[in-house]
């Protein structure tokens, strides 16, 4: 299975955001991906949550989710994205991840339980925590995926419950707030969740300028396979994984041998198949990777 990470730069125009999701889903399908994951608040985002979030919120059978289902169906790809969902409390919405199969059917949804009330942010003012702490795990293509959102990453109990629930891959969809050493924290926390639970972690964040973090993929020994961060769009071979990253400007390219700068606005990060390049990973992993990816 190929998994694509669509690093967006979402804004307050829902239709523009949906068009970007549609475009990236089409690109992911062309690259052979079976599932594409987008960030938290993929369909509506601002620098800080405010009263407009509950104002634009919709139920999971509303027009926004119907369009996401149509995108998944149109491109025959499984799709995970962050939406703003109505709640039963006036003035507050849910921060929800929703997953659709390639037939447009809803596979799962997860309402964020750990809200970002830190560093001058008060997400809970306009966002309501999910009412259930039960882990959300869904199966697609023979792989079991667990869902986490942004600040959840700092609470290891949730990742452990997802792993206990059978998740093989944790999809961490984020809008990681920038700040001193925040990118380093993003990478370290993704790695920690992979190592301590012996799972794979795929993290995708809103793109810089208003956010930090990037897109990354970790295997369960804590070996990173990708971070796009603020670097230009590059295609890299890293060990046995093919990773297409995308974001930012054309300057300060950190790509190594095989880097292919494409420039432009945020694009896709696609985790591809196994490439034989020596025995830098533990013996016995290759068969597991072949089966999973």
Could you explain the architecture of this structure?
This protein has 293 residues and is α/β, with parallel strands linked by helices. The chain has a single domain, classed as Nitrilase/N-carbamoyl-D-aminoacid amidohydrolase (4-Layer Sandwich), CATH 3.60.110. Strands 1, 2, 3, 4, 5, 6, 13, 14 and 15 form a nine-stranded mixed sheet that branches. A hairpin with a 5-residue loop joins β11 and β12. The longest helix has 17 residues. The chain is globular.
Count the domains.
1
Distance between the termini: 4 Å
Mean pLDDT score: 77
- Total helices: the number is 6
The shape is: globular
Work out the strand percent.
Answer: 25-35%
Q: What is the makeup of the main sheet?
A: 9 strands, mixed
Summing up helix and strand content along with how strands pair, one would put the structural category as alpha/beta
Spatial extent as radius of gyration: 18 Å
Could you state the order of secondary-structure elements as H and E? Answer: EHEHHEEEEEEHEHEEEEEEH
* CATH level 4 superfamily: Carbon-nitrogen hydrolase
CATH architecture: 4-Layer Sandwich
Number of strands: 15
Q: The CATH topology, please?
A: Nitrilase/N-carbamoyl-D-aminoacid amidohydrolase
Low-confidence stretches: 227-293
CATH class: Alpha Beta
Please state the oligomeric state of the protein chains shown: single chain
Give the proportion of residues in helices.
10-25%
Q: Keyphrases for this structure?
A:
single chain, 293 residues, alpha/beta, Nitrilase/N-carbamoyl-D-aminoacid amidohydrolase, 6 helices, 23% helix
């Amino acid at each position: 299975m190929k998994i694509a990470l669509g690093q967006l730069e979402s804004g307050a125009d829902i239709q523009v955001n949906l068009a970007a999701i549609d475009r990236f889903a089409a690109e992911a399908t062309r690259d052979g991906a079976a599932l594409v994951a987008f960030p938290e608040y993929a369909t509506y985002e601002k620098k800080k949550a405010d009263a407009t979030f509950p104002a634009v919120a919709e139920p999971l059978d509303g027009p926004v989710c119907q369009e996401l289902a149509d995108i998944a169906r149109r491109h025959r790809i499984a799709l995970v994205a962050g939406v703003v969902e109505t709640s039963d409390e006036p003035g507050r919405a849910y921060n929800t991840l929703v997953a659709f199969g390639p037939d447009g059917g809803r596979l799962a949804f997860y309402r964020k339980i750990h809200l970002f009330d830190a560093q001058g942010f008060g997400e809970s003012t306009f966002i309501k925590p999910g009412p259930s702490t039960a882990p959300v795990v869904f199966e697609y293509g023979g792989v079991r995926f667990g869902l986490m959102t942004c600040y959840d990453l700092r609470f290891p109990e949730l990742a452990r419950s997802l792993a206990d629930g059978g998740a093989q891959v944790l999809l961490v969809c984020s809008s990681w707030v920038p700040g001193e050493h925040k990118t380093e924290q993003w990478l370290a926390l993704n790695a920690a969740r992979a190592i301590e639970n012996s799972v794979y972690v795929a993290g995708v964040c809103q793109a810089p300028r208003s956010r930090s973090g990037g897109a990354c993929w970790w295997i369960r020994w804590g070996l990173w396979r990708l971070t796009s961060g603020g670097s230009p769009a590059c295609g890299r071979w890293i060990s046995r994984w093919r990773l297409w990253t995308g974001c930012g400007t054309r300057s300060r390219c950190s790509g190594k041998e095989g880097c292919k700068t494409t420039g432009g606005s945020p694009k896709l990060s696609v985790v591809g198949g196994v490439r034989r390049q020596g025995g830098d990973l533990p013996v016995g992993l290759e068969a597991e990777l072949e089966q999973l990816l």
